[in-house]
From TrEMBL, chain A:
GO terms for molecular function: 4 iron, 4 sulfur cluster binding; glycerol-3-phosphate dehydrogenase (quinone) activity; metal ion binding. It comes from the Archaea. Residues 169-202 form the 4Fe-4S ferredoxin-type domain. Its EC number is 1.1.5.3. PROSITE patterns: 4FE4S_FER_1 (PS00198), 4FE4S_FER_2 (PS51379). This is Anaerobic glycerol-3-phosphate dehydrogenase subunit C. Residues 1-120 are annotated as: Disordered. It comes from Halorubrum rubrum. Gene3D superfamilies: Alpha-helical ferredoxin.
From TrEMBL, chain B:
InterPro entries: FAD-dep_OxRdtase_2_FAD-bd, FAD/NAD-bd_sf, G3P_DH_GlpB_su. SUPFAM superfamilies: FAD/NAD(P)-binding domain. It comes from Halorubrum rubrum. This is Glycerol-3-phosphate dehydrogenase subunit GlpB. Keywords: Flavoprotein, FMN, Oxidoreductase.
Length: 530, 467
């Protein structure tokens, strides 16, 4: 069993005392807190309201404005002190202390001298990654944007090369970074584990922060797209009107002309009852089980647009005897990373991490139904931000189907079931972000042997929408070109219903083929629970 | 509960895929995991079996005394490698005794190639004979290879038809004229000329080859002309560039392109070009980024799917647990109970009754090295190596490099051996680059070693499960 249970006991009695977390989160996000708990978390004294498990060991690259975090942005300074001793830490700014620094001894013992000793260990920021690149260009061949857009110089340039160029202050970030769709396929392609998407996120963040005109329509448009949660929350107040108004012809024409949001795309409909409203109305969890708890990170889309996915998650997990928790949460940050809005993403991440760490302290693992949300919590969070407990969130986060496959006899349960009511055929597309988590085949594998279900993988191409990428007028054509291969394979497939885990892939699949699109959880619910 | 399967194959290259399919065909329930997208996309797409037999002993004995920096031998004191080899199978006996081919036997290579032929169908040629084909590669050399993609078929060097090699200024690593000159200098039995044509100029100078391939796949308009037509038009004026020895000019009968002629619709693109040019069209296999490698990856992963193998990428193996009951004094070593995979920070156990380790060699990171030693990182298997790292290499860069043969040493059933020559784990098999004993770069034997050992390892693993 791999359930992490070592933290459960200590946190059990604290249920009632956990506040909503709002008022003082600003005080405890400092780098010092992160450092104190970076050294293992077992010897430090527990902090109020925070379970005793906060860790943040992985190098992060983004910190809010200069003075916000002590020492950050000013080079490897005192914040790198004690923790660097156990785990080599990376500075946040790429600075190098000195040519011979990095070890305790400044005098090199001539007998033990090796040329590589002149480089300090640790404190190299992304240089390790840049140096790991041996220019095999596997990343470029995997890039769906470079395939259709020869103005885009590809991930090898955007990653290691741009990183070298911008290390000196006299060089601007190349604007082409904004054409990267953040599909992260390059991460999966790189045989040398160069942190390409981390480099892209950093460069894009810096570009938007320092070089992008904040009053430009492009910035405003990107900010709106990145902060989908904000718009969705407002729209959900009057869902029917919003669904109508957002797709009202003249309004769409104006949006295209003024903001650059392609009129070809249809805005997703807003649910008349959000997932959280449904959850509240049903009285929350129907099962209590301190031994099997999960905290559901529904993300924005399952909440505002497809609550049926969230409901399926709850019903399937309750079917397996889990106590489902639905902690307060904001956007996972995926659309913000893709638009270089790292400050927005961090603000949301603080809320998410705080609430999820609390749930983990109560013995829960974190479950996401959107593969980009799980990707963000698992990889981008610890790569980009230093927030107390962010590593724990990463280590305890799983995709919904993945978690059941690890912890339950899902194949057995499906074999015993009679299958869904009628014969169904699906054209399944694996989102790029699922691919990077090793999940590209799990839906096909899970349902392949289920009676009455035909599941066909439509291939390994990118859907082309990549979150907000395909929602920009100037990228719309490219987005559809990238998606063409998937559309073709969907048309060739037996099934007339599409299936995917990612909400924006689903939009693109629907847009390109007219198919109705389902989430694997919905089929699981239909097969096991109904 | 864990992610369970009967046979767990670690590694997504040719060896891993071959092992997985071989095991599945024996009736085992198989899962293949790989850390990253398959490195086949970096491969040329050629399937070599054995092209050369390099000498392993110098012409004169090594000098006495402790090594300093390398063995300081004059490269000239080493005999030239034997080759190109016409028939790989008959040459196997001349390889060192601990070479993987000698361990598993020539029949394993034969069966491995037969399995490959079966998986790729008519996308590959060369299976009609035991003998090697000679295929021009983009450096201008001619490489002995056992199987080659259909896209390279019209380019084989044994063909005597006059040939035009087409290049593009934006593809800096591919100089068509130098390539043609080198082919001529290598003594190929045909007249050849190189020409740089204007087509890729319509794209940005550093456009990726995948961009060019996609444009041809979709037949996108280039300045108003469909891409395939535009490319044919650019080549047209050079069809009479070849001058024979007598000074006469012939119309070329075949035209070679860098390997970017389409991806999903490659055959269609070649046919369209051949039709317009009135000549056969072939691709010259290139280094990465390699479209032939990408196409082969697609073919083999489809074959995995058809064979019922479950597979996933993005999950590195980071640990293992042994089965406590299994270790005994029976000389069959311990047993692996499960491997631990990393899923973006969460550790997930993958249970299996048999494990095939096909993680690659030093380049593929199936072997890890630093200044202290060379290790096999997944199961920490024994990798024999000189204690003094100055004995890992010789000064002659193209010489008999000891490190090239580093790797896990298995018995003839491909069970890994520990430092004392005993089986380390009875339910583990090793295949491909992680197996030591072959200098695949000099022998031109990488794919063949992967196919032969993959086949044996897969069957062995299935047998282990059935016991």
């Amino acid at each position: 069993m791999t359930r992490h249970t070592e933290n459960g006991d200590g946190a059990d009695g604290t249920d009632g005392s956990h506040g909503d977390g709002g008022p003082n989160d600003g005080d405890r996000r400092g780098a010092n807190d992160a450092q104190r708990c970076g050294c293992g978390g077992t010897d430090g004294t527990p902090q109020p309201n925070v379970p005793e498990i906060g860790r943040d060991e992985r190098p992060a690259i983004f910190v809010p404005d200069g003075g916000d975090e002590e020492g950050a942005g000013a080079g490897p300074s005192e914040t790198d002190g004690s923790a660097a001793a156990d785990a080599p830490r990376t500075a946040t700014d790429g600075g190098v202390e000195s040519a011979t620094g990095g070890s305790d001894s400044t005098e090199l013992d001539p007998d033990a001298y090796d040329p590589i000793d002149v480089f300090p260990e640790g404190d190299l920021d992304l240089r390790d990654g840049a140096d790991s690149c041996y220019k095999c260009t596997s990343c470029d061949t995997s890039c769906p944007v470079a395939e259709v857009d020869d103005e885009f110089p590809g991930p090898k340039f955007q990653g290691p090369e741009q990183w070298r160029l911008k290390r000196k202050d006299d060089h601007d970030i190349d604007e082409s970074i904004t054409s990267c769709s953040n599909c992260m396929r390059c991460d999966d392609a790189c045989p040398s584990s160069v942190p390409l998407s981390q480099m892209h996120n950093e460069a894009r963040g810096q570009f938007v922060e320092e070089q992008m005109e904040k009053l430009s329509l492009e910035y405003v448009r990107n900010r709106i797209l990145a902060n989908y949660r904000t718009s969705a929350r407002l729209a959900s107040v009057v869902p029917r009107l919003s669904s109508f108004a957002m797709n009202f012809g003249p309004a769409r024409w104006a949006m295209d002309k003024v903001l650059g949001i392609p009129k070809e795309r249809e805005f997703p409909e807003f649910a008349t009852t959000t997932f959280r409203e449904w959850w509240r109305d049903r009285g929350g969890a129907q099962i209590e089980n301190p031994d099997k708890r999960v905290a559901y990170f529904h993300g924005c889309y399952s909440n505002y647009n497809t609550p049926e996915v969230g409901k399926a998650m709850v019903r399937v997990y309750e079917h397996f005897g889990y106590e489902v928790m639905v902690p307060p949460q904001k956007c996972s940050g995926t659309p913000m990373f893709a638009n270089g809005m790292l400050k927005d993403a961090r603000r949301h991440a603080e809320t998410n991490v705080e609430n999820l760490v609390e749930a983990i302290g109560d013995g829960a693992d974190v479950i996401a139904s959107c593969t980009s949300c799980s990707m963000s919590l698992r990889q981008e969070y610890p790569e980009l931000f230093d927030i107390h407990g962010i590593e724990d969130v990463s280590d305890h986060t799983f995709e919904a189907l993945e978690y059941l496959r690890i912890h339950e006899d899902l194949d057995g349960a499906l074999a015993e079931s009679d299958g869904p009511g009628d014969e169904q055929s699906f054209a399944y597309h694996a989102p790029c972000h699922a691919r990077n988590q090793g999940l590209a085949r799990q839906a096909v594998e899970t349902f392949r042997d289920v009676d009455g279900v035909e599941m066909e993988d439509v291939g390994d191409s990118c859907s082309g929408i990549s979150g907000t990428y395909g929602w920009k007028s100037e990228k719309y054509e490219k987005s559809m070109q990238i998606g063409e291969e998937m559309f073709d394979h969907m048309e060739d497939a037996e099934g007339e219903v599409g299936m995917t885990e990612c909400p924006t892939c689903a939009m693109q699949m629907e847009h390109g083929t007219g198919y109705e699109i389902e989430h694997p959880l919905q089929l699981l619910e239909e097969t096991l629970v109904a | 509960m864990a992610i369970d399967s009967e046979v767990l194959v670690v590694g997504g290259g040719i060896a891993g895929i071959t092992a997985a399919i071989a095991a599945a065909r024996e009736g085992a329930d198989v899962r293949l995991v790989s850390h990253k997208a398959s490195t086949l996309r970096q491969a040329s797409g050629l399937i070599d079996a054995l092209g050369y037999v390099p000498p392993t002993e110098p012409a004169k004995p090594l000098r006495e005394g402790p090594p300093t920096a390398g063995w300081n031998l004059d490269p000239d004191e080493w005999p030239d490698p034997e080759g190109p080899i016409a028939d790989p199978f008959e040459a196997i006996d001349r390889l060192p005794e601990d070479h993987p081919y000698r361990l598993v036997g020539a029949d394993a290579l034969r069966e491995g190639l037969a399995l490959f032929d079966d998986l790729v169908g008519d996308a590959y040629l060369g299976g009609h004979t035991d003998r090697n084909a000679l295929v021009p590669t983009f450096g201008g050399s001619v490489k002995p290879t056992a199987r080659y993609p259909a896209s390279a078929a019209a380019g084989v060097a044994s063909d005597d038809r006059p040939t035009l090699i087409v290049g593009f200024r934006s593809l800096t690593e591919y100089d068509a004229r130098a390539f043609a000159d080198r082919l001529a200098a290598a003594g190929v039995p045909f007249d050849v000329a190189g020409a740089e044509v204007e087509f890729a100029e319509a794209f940005r100078a550093d456009a990726k080859v995948t961009r060019l391939a996609k444009a041809l796949d979709r037949d996108e308009p280039i300045d108003g002309t469909p891409a395939r037509e535009a490319l044919a038009k650019a080549v047209g004026p050079h069809l009479h560039d070849v001058v024979d020895e007598a000074g006469g000019v012939d119309r070329v009968e075949r035209v070679g392109f860098p390997a970017f002629l389409g991806d999903d619709h490659a055959a269609e693109v070649r046919a369209a070009l051949a039709d317009r040019l009135g000549a056969d069209v072939f691709e010259v296999p290139m280094g990465p980024p390699s479209l032939p490698g990408l196409r082969l990856e697609d073919l083999l992963y489809d074959a995995l799917d058809d064979a019922g193998v479950r597979f996933e990428t993005g999950t590195p193996a980071v640990g293992y647990e042994t089965d406590e009951g299994g270790a005994g004094g029976d000389g069959n070593g311990g047993r692996i109970d499960h491997l631990v995979m990393d899923r973006k920070g969460s550790e997930v156990p993958y249970g299996a009754e048999a494990v095939v380790l096909a993680t690659g060699g030093l380049v593929g990171k199936g072997l890890d090295s630093d200044r202290d030693g060379v290790r096999e990182p997944v199961l920490d298997l024994h990798v024999p190596q000189p204690a003094d790292r100055y004995e890992w290499f010789v000064d002659d860069a193209f010489g008999e490099q000891p490190y090239a043969r580093f790797g896990v040493r298995p018995d003839e059933r491909l069970r890994p051996l520990d430092g004392s020559g005993e089986v380390a784990y009875g339910n583990v098999r090793v295949a491909g680059g992680v197996v030591g004993g072959a200098d695949v770069a000099r022998e031109k034997s990488a794919s063949g070693v992967s196919l032969a050992t993959g086949l044996v390892a897969g069957r062995e693993a299935a047998r282990e499960v059935q016991q």
